[in-house]
Structure formats: structure tokens, C-alpha cells
Amino acid sequence: INSLEDLQGLKMRIPGLGGEVFSRAGGVPVTMQVSDVFTSLETGALDATEWVSPYNDLAAGYHTVARYYYYPGWHEPGSTLETIFNKEAFEALPEDLQEILLAASEVMNKRIHDELTARNNEALQTLVNEHNVELRRIPDDVLQEFRRLSEEVILEMAAVDETSQRVYQSWKAFLDGVSAYHQIAEDAFIEARNLPLN
């Protein structure tokens, strides 16, 4: 992918809102069972796939049928883990057991996130250094168009009804605030850490 033109007609497994954005950019989003992705890449029924992370991609063997690995994941910063409880069953539990389940869920979320961060690093190195997968950055003009289209989709969703508008306004206020903070916290830290040594 060198330009927006390269997206035209590109068949990619990408569901949900990311798929809607991809479609508006000229791509062909495909939703399919995970079990069909490898064969679809192998046969050419798919040109590309959006998947979880290097660790999961390596385990799925996608490197044997897809030579290029594009970043950043413009449609999501990473996976979100969740634990779902039946509300009635949860509320029927004694309060101490409810607290135990909530605490255990939080601990497992953090543990899995931390473990995958470490494993993703190892897997990415394996993909690039042992399997000769080519790491490529999505060009800025493509990322800018994805961002423009993403905002278009989000605003359309926000306009659906009053509840959607309230959710959007709450989300947007938080996003604006946290983005300002991240510029002087995480972003600035990474920039400082990457300064050349004299």
C-alpha cells in the first residue's frame, strides 16, 4: 500500500466500524469466520486481513501467506478484554463473592495485557527476522483519509438519536481531555526516550 489508490477493490477481512471506514476508502471489507481467513488469504479470496497482534498472527501462520505487515492499527489501538457475567446470577451472589469476581477479572485483564505486550514483541521479531515478513508503515495520506472517514462515520452514528448524541459528547469530551494529557505524558516520554545520545 503506497497510496489511497492501492485500496481500491482490496479485499480485506475487517469487520465493524473499521470495515465501514475501509469501504468508504474504496476497499472491500469482508466478514468471515476466523477459521476461513488463512485459506482465503492462501487462495486469494482475501488480499489482506486485520487480526489481533503479532503473537496471534504468528500462531495463525499468516506469515506463510502474507508477506507484508502494516502498521499502525488505525482502527483500534489494541484489543480490549472483557469478562461478562449474567446480571441476575451475579446479583444473586453474596457481596463478598461479587467483589472477588470483579477483582479477579481486573487482575486477569492486567495479567493478559502485560503478557501479550511481552509476547507481541517476541513474535514481531520472529516474523521479521526469521520469516522475512516486511514491516511497512501505512502512508500518512492513507492514515489521514482513514481518520477523516472515521470521524465521518462517528458523527453519523452520533446523529442517530439523542442517546447516541449524549454518548458521543461524553466520549468526545473525555477524548479531548485525555489526548491533551497524553501529549505531555506518554507521548512526551516516548519522544524523550528516543532522543539521540550525544
pLDDT < 50 stretches: none
Major sheet summary line: 3 strands, parallel
Share of residues in helices: 55-70%
Mean pLDDT across all residues, rounded?
96
Strand order of the largest sheet: 2-1-3
The assigned CATH architecture of the largest domain is 3-Layer(aba) Sandwich
- CATH homologous superfamily of the largest domain, by name? Bacterial extracellular solute-binding protein, family 7
Give me the count of strands: 5
Order of SSEs, N→C? EHEHEHEHHEHHH
Class per helix and strand makeup: mainly alpha
The number of helical runs is 8
| Estimated radius of gyration | 20 Å
Cα separation of the termini: 36 Å
The tally of domains stands at: 2
Secondary structure: elements and pairs:
Layout: E1 11-13, H1 16-24, E2 28-30, H2 34-43, E3 48-49, H3 54-60, E4 68-71, H4 87-92, H5 95-129, E5 134-137, H6 140-158, H7 162-184, H8 186-193
Parallel strand pairs: 1-2, 1-3, 4-5
Helix pairs in contact: 1-6, 3-5, 6-7, 7-8
Walk me through the structure:
The chain is mainly alpha-helical. The chain has 2 domains: 155 residues, Bacterial extracellular solute-binding protein, family 7 (D-Maltodextrin-Binding Protein, domain 2), CATH 3.40.190; 39 residues. The protein is built from 8 helices and 5 strands, in the order E-H-E-H-E-H-E-H-H-E-H-H-H. A 3-stranded parallel sheet has the order 2-1-3. A two-stranded parallel sheet has the order 4-5. Strand 1, helix 1 and strand 2 form a beta-alpha-beta unit. Helix 1 packs across helix 6 and helix 3 crosses helix 5. The longest helix is centred in the middle third of the chain and has 35 residues. The radius of gyration is 20 Å and the shape is globular.
